[in-house]
Amino acid sequence: MTRRATILMYHILDTPRAEREAKYCCLPERFSEQMAWIAETRQPVSLDTLLAGLDGRANLPDDAVAVTFDDGFASTFENAMPVLTRYRIPAAMFIVVNHIGGDNDWMHRRGMPQRALMDTAQIREMHAADITIGSHTLTHPKLPKCPPDKMSREIADSKAILEDILSHPVQHFAYPYGLYNDRACRFVKQAGYRSACSTRSGFNNIETDRYELRRIEVFGSDRLWNLKQKLKFGSNDASWTLPAKYYLRRALSRLSGKD
């Protein structure tokens, strides 16, 4: 078995309410189509299984795919749960802890629509359905801009609160906006998380830092062929020209002796 895996990243499963949030909104019918294809053609795995495979503690097929969601939108809960259950797909939901039962104020302060986030009962229901619950900090800040004491609280306190809600260890983290630095990575490790997800695109393998896991973002405009291309090349780029650019880079790399 080749120890390589892809992690997908979603945000909102709903019809966009404004152009500014369209990038983050995957239509529920498209999500259902994507999950049906993944269930049929790939091997869906949980983050725990993915880590075990990368660490050599379990066999990890080359077509392993983990599904993740950032922020914890109520609409995502409503539209994802039936689909994940139908196709028996493991997933992870990263929660902004101080906004449980509230809204996405970090987005609507930037002109995006206000949207409800999952409440405690919905988070527990997801956990009971074997959906991994992870932390996305307390307030969704840009961690590299936080002073050390605030950064530590955002990372460690969010974990503690979620563990109190679930009566279960919380072992996975996702950096808000995908932003992090060495200090953030260090605090995540010190808090006791086993992994942290970035927003950098690419495949994950045995050499990937477990606190800088790569993810492929699924945009609202992505059709099924876009998703297939992203999974094939490990890139957020889903343009028609990507294959030609990819193979040209490979050819040039071989000619230069770097491949």
Structure, explained:
It is a single chain. The chain is an alpha/beta fold and 259 residues long. The chain has 2 domains: 219 residues, Glycoside hydrolase/deacetylase (TIM Barrel, Alpha-Beta Barrel); 37 residues, no CATH class. 39% of the residues lie in helices and 15% in strands. The model has no long low-confidence stretch (mean pLDDT 92).
Which features characterize this protein?
259 residues; alpha/beta; TIM Barrel; 2 domains; 7-stranded mixed beta sheet; two-stranded parallel ribbon; globular
* CATH class call of the largest domain: Alpha Beta
CATH homologous superfamily title of the largest domain: Glycoside hydrolase/deacetylase
Q: Specify the overall morphology.
A: globular
Structural class: alpha/beta
- Low-pLDDT runs of 5+ residues are none
Q: Determine the fraction of residues in helical runs and give it as a percent range.
A: 25-40%
Tally of individual helices: 9
Quaternary status: single chain
Main sheet specs: 7 strands, mixed
Q: What fraction strand?
A: 15-25%
Cα distance spanning the termini = 22 Å
CATH architecture of the largest domain: Alpha-Beta Barrel
Order of helices and strands: EEEHEHEHEHHEHEHEEEHH
Mean pLDDT: 92
Number of strands: 11
Number of domains: 2
CATH-assigned fold name of the largest domain: TIM Barrel
Radius of gyration: 18 Å
